Amino acid sequence: MNVKTVLVLLVVAVATIFALVCVLLTRERAPGTCQHRPPAQEDADDGQSLVFADLTAEELAQVVRYLRTSLGVQLVEPARAQPSDNCIASVELQLPAKAEALQFLDEGGPRPRREALAVLYFGAQAEPNVTEYVVGPLPVPAYHRDVTARKYGGKVPYHRRPVTAQEYMDIGALIRRELGRAPRFLAACCESDGADLAALTTAPRGFRSGDRSTWFVLFHDVAGTGYYLLPVGLEVLVEHGDLRMSRWRLRQVFYNGRYFAGAVDLEDAFVAGALEVVRVEKPQAGDVLGSMRPRQPPGPPPPMQYEPQGPRYSVRGNRITFQGWSIAFGMSPYSGPRLFDIRFRGKRIIYELSLQEALALYGSNCPGSMTTRYLDGSFGIGRFAYELVRGLDCPYAATYVDRHYLVESETPKTNRNSLCVFEHDAAAPLRRHFSDSQSLYYGGLRRTVLVVRAVSTLINYDYVWDFLFHGSGAVEVRVHATGYISSSFFHGQGTKYGNRVGPHTLGTMHLHHVHYKVDLDVDGQLNSLETQDMEYELVKDPWSRQSTIERPFLRRERLRTEDQAAFPIGGRVPRYLSFTGPNPNKWGHARSYRIQVTSFAGEHLPTSSRMERAISWGRYQLAVTRRKEEEPTSSSIYNQNDPWTPTVAFADFINNETIVNEDLVAWISVGFLHVPHAEDVPNTVTVGNGVGFFLRPYNYFDEDPSVDSPDSVYFSSKQDVGDCGANPLACLPLAAACAPRLPPFRYGGFLNL
């Protein structure tokens, strides 16, 4: 090797070493792992919230064991029970009476007995019926009492029971068997033998009490996509009310605007050339209408929310605490999420905040959709709140909670990670001001909220249930609808009932109406209802008497009866409507919480309808009644299959009783009219499809309670805004210079179906 070569190699080596040193010196240090700091200790609970806790899996199993040995009747496993059998339909928590709960929570009284509510179907009795038992005490049951007559005035007729999964399976077998009688028609219309078609139930099931006849809409079923957008034009009416399944029958068939007595008549009309057939080819998975498979490769990850020092809230058992808030939470398998004993700064504001019912009412020129009025509580809003997808349904680092339930089974099931809790940065100020005159300063507070969320999948639709708790003392409740639209086969004057969204698909118009119960206890149990609204008065200016002024003023009124406090949907509601307590604030005004509703509800079913009383809660956007233990819910799981003689009729709650200085409940309806359009394919988006309400402090405090937030920011023109001691925002680059510790992604939502 010559000298020249050696020199070249030395120069290259020196240059390489220099470059590496520069990289090491200038390279930023990799962020360390975020160190979690435990949230500040809130007030002690000592397990009090457990009086509202859902039953554990072991408690559910104990109730089943007790019922099997104590009722003296043979019980069949629900998963294989026929209509003529006895079986356990469901078991859930029996909520304690409010007086007992408050005596325990507030006065140191005895803990209420922990009890379960069991619903049983007695199909093997001389008079088949549905019976409800309260079973207790838990965890080791020793007694049961029949509460059906006390709650409903007698036994619940058997035809009102919700349809079970086994009943649907038996109906499906009947439909496939009957469709097999029209093989040439099915091959011509749908490229099918009938076995590969999906059948979608409708409800209610007939036109009068005692009916149990259901229209089923048939769709192409393509693996990996929602079948709801693929109708083939065929619908069948199945009569399945008899206890003997051998007597079930297919009563009618609808196809492309025509009705037939059965599949044989349909086949005969086709063979005779007397039937117009619209050929609907079975789509392939790659190009099916409504496919949710990604069409683009993954890009850079979207923004992510994380907590540099760990969550600032605490979830212990069924209790959540967060910056002055305390909430007990639960989930009914039927009516869905419910919250209890909601306190802010140690004082109870709400005793109960719960979802009651969700209605979807359709219109179409096909029989299935035109008769559909789904009452989702009957299907199971809480039961079908499945596992949430981490990082999409909720923030990746949210806290996820399992829920146990027992419906149509003697074995408890668990929907893992089916409720999430997280603090959300709304990316907007809760309050702020920039002063550009006199003294120069900036003051403000970021709007972060605690969110409690669940998502229910009810056949085609997914409902996102949110409960939000603000630093201002406000509670926000909202629901978003997403998922697939339901559809009809497009024929005739279909666009009178919606929009065409596919070659043979009519997106059918429908209403979403959702009902909530809000048992406010504002500064105590005894409250009144006050309204405020504006009017103008014409006055002369007092300084010259030469001109007139249209001066706005407040019209205040205290409503005295339930009838005065029932506001029809679509009617005028006072802009300010508040629950007032007995005591004034510092400024002499009654401590109050205001109800503020955001809703775009469609028209309610006419009261002349024979089924309207079953959903009479939908008459009112807001109704305030006296609280009664015998009026715990506005709907019933039995209303769906017998809306003509409803088990619970909310309209009966309103009977002109006084509401002055009483324990009151606000019943709130929110909703919207949905006319599906092209952009609802593949799914309805949540944007613009959200409604809800606020519960806002109104003179409840002496000032905005968020002034005490440690997140407040203030700096003046005379301060060094980059000084971490003077401006908390200047601390963020250092505080957030860490990487979050994220658990590996897992999902088990398909395991418990």
TrEMBL record:
A matching Pfam family: Cu_amine_oxidN3
Active site positions, chain numbering: 376, 461
The protein's name in its UniProt record: Amine oxidase
Top EC class, one word: oxidoreductase
Ranges of Pro residues composition bias in the record: 295-305
GO aspect biological process, one term: amine metabolic process
Residues passing through the membrane, by range: none
Domain Copper amine oxidase catalytic: 305-706
Domain Copper amine oxidase N2-terminal: 69-143
Gene3D superfamilies: 3.10.450.40, Copper amine oxidase, catalytic domain
Gene name in the database record: Aoc3
Residue ranges occupied by any Copper amine oxidase N3-terminal domain in the UniProt entry: 161-258
Manner of cofactor binding, per the entry note: Contains 1 topaquinone per subunit.
UniProt organism field: Rhinopomastus cyanomelas (Common scimitarbill)
GO molecular function: copper ion binding; primary methylamine oxidase activity; quinone binding
GO cellular component: plasma membrane
Location of the region described as Disordered in the Swiss-Prot/TrEMBL record: 288-307
